[in-house]
Write a structure and sequence with these properties.
The chain is an alpha+beta fold. Helix content is 28%, strand content 25%. The chain contains 15 helices and 27 strands. The strands form 7 sheets. A 5-stranded mixed β-sheet has the order 1-11-12-10-9. It has a 4-stranded mixed β-sheet with strand order 25-26-4-27. Strand 25, helix 13 and strand 26 form a beta-alpha-beta unit. Helix 2 packs parallel to helix 8 and helix 11 packs parallel to helix 13.
Length: 496
């Protein structure tokens, strides 16, 4: 592979802010064309050895001869949904994406032994994290059938996060703490991020700098040197779960005491803290918004079972709300839904819990709601697009306002293609229901828009085709087969 470099444009030393820091976002929900543009590739160029042009929605990289290769495990896919079937049956909730990715990165902090992670979701983002860990020298085996991942990070051989992965995999920044503590430096080639607005990554690097690292900014890469890292008092301007976990990882092996104020409260953060604590980290205050980390000398490899994915569980609950019927979710925790639970109940969705079993039923006309996204336990931003789709069936006008990402209204146009009556009103979206949705071809602009359109297709008359399917596969495992188990008519197929 050819890795691109450029002249040095500025330095960022401990305690300083970076001049003109490049923007990126909290997640990595790339649109088809943005994934090409961020990688510096032009739509329409031919993929090496395939005879087909670049169309986006996949993982592409450039050889030194200028040709392109496709990093996908297989051909591009799309989802075909035929609506009208009520849902009935049982489905298993996958392991939490937002916990598993952090644990894969954290496993590289252990110099000895093998880390074993169970209940790992079989999704594309996990496969990208595995590729990244392997690129750094770790030996990683993902037993997908058993949903078990084994990491041996005893020998890391590279401190470079390669451009062809880092540009499109936002979670690449999570591997920085391990590289700083194990190899003394980390280089992120390319700029990670997506099309979800203007939220920055600078608080990650500002936190590393406060802990004593030096951050050098270049035009197309970021080089971070560990220096003499020590505990410090850190404050997060926004309670980002990725920022919270990343700085906890960085502080775990930094001598002294680190205090992180205004931390995220998401259940996944608590699961990552539990994992790090098993490894030997000394962390207190999880779930309070005020975390204290006492640095230790080393962390050891352990076994851990990843918690269930509350976003995946809520999506299937909303599938029941869209199609009607009764669904049993195995592994779901209603407590982890936060405000999402109360909003669905306000709409007329019924829940019943029996240990780790959650039953969801909708057998009446849905009512409209008001939704404002906010950090946990507020309404999850990742579920804003799905609830917008559900609101199309409510009798009356629903009000939805996004406060975390300023680019997450791309679903509006797609729902209107299907017959929705959805409008952007300033900083909010108004959904005028009930709408008679009709199947058509729609575009998944990102992961959350994609799964929301699959949900809309469940209630639409006729056939809905959602593409590119890869973006949905980034966050949800075996969507078509799991929905089909419940009686939905959903298939995944290879695009032309």
């Amino acid at each position: 592979m050819e890795y691109w470099t450029a002249r040095k444009t500025g330095d960022w030393r401990p305690g300083e802010l970076p001049p003109g820091w490049p923007g990126a976002t909290e997640d990595s929900d790339l649109s088809p064309t943005d994934s090409l543009e961020l990688a510096g590739l032009e739509p329409g160029r031919e993929l090496r050895g395939t005879g087909r042009p670049t169309t986006g929605g996949g993982h592409l990289a450039e050889h030194g001869d200028g040709s392109l290769i496709d990093m996908n495990d297989g051909p591009q896919t799309r989802y075909r949904v035929r609506g009208g079937n009520p849902l009935q049956g049982t489905v298993f909730v996958q392991g939490a994406k937002n916990a598993a990715l952090k644990m894969i990165a954290a496993s590289l902090l252990a110099e000895k032994g093998r880390t074993v992670l169970r209940n790992v979701p079989v999704i594309e983002d996990v496969r990208r994290a595995v590729e990244l860990a392997q690129a750094l020298g770790a030996v990683v085996k993902f037993h997908e059938a058993e949903r078990t991942l084994v990491v041996d990070a005893s020998e890391l051989t590279s401190s470079v996060l390669p451009a062809e992965i880092a540009r499109r995999f936002r979670a690449s920044v999570l591997f920085v703490p391990a590289l700083l503590h194990r190899l003394g430096e980390a280089t992120i080639e390319g700029v990670g991020g997506c099309n979800l607005g203007s939220r920055n990554l600078d608080f990650h690097y500002r936190g590393f700098a406060r802990l004593g690292a030096r951050v050098d900014e270049h035009e197309d890469r970021i080089h971070i040197t560990a220096g003499h890292m020590r505990g410090a008092h850190l404050y997060l301007d926004t309670p980002s779960h990725t920022g919270t976990e990343n700085l906890i990882m960085a502080a775990s092996l930094a001598p002294g005491t680190t205090v992180i104020d205004n931390c995220a409260l998401e259940p996944e953060v608590l699961d990552v803290i539990a994992f790090l604590s098993k490894m030997g980290a000394r962390i207190s205050g999880g779930g309070t918004g005020f975390v204290t980390v006492q640095g230790v000398g080393e962390l050891t490899a352990v076994e851990h079972t990843v918690m269930a994915d509350r976003i995946d569980a809520a999506v299937f609950a909303m599938a029941a709300a869209m199609a009607g019927g009764e669904v049993t979710l195995v592994g779901a925790s209603l407590d982890d839904f936060g405000v999402v639970r109360w909003k669905l109940e306000q709409m007329g969705v019924e829940f019943a819990t029996h240990g780790a079993i959650l039953q969801v039923r909708r057998d009446r006309q849905l009512r409209p709601i008001n939704v404002i996204t906010s950090p946990f336990p507020g309404f999850a931003t990742d579920l804003q697009s799905p609830i917008m789709a559900v609101s199309c069936l409510a009798e009356g006008t629903s009000y939805i306002r996004e406060t975390i990402f300023d680019g997450r209204y791309s679903l509006v146009g797609e729902l209107n293609k299907m017959g929705g009556k959805v409008e952007i009103d300033g900083t909010a979206v108004l959904v005028h229901g009930p709408c008679a949705l009709r199947g058509t071809e729609v575009i998944a602009h990102d992961l959350r828009t994609g799964i929301a359109l699959v949900l809309a297709g469940l209630a639409a008359e006729g056939e809905t085709v959602v593409s590119p399917g890869y973006l949905i596969d980034r966050g949800h495992a075996s969507v078509a087969s799991r929905l089909a188990t419940l009686g939905a008519d959903v298939t995944a197929e290879i695009s032309d």
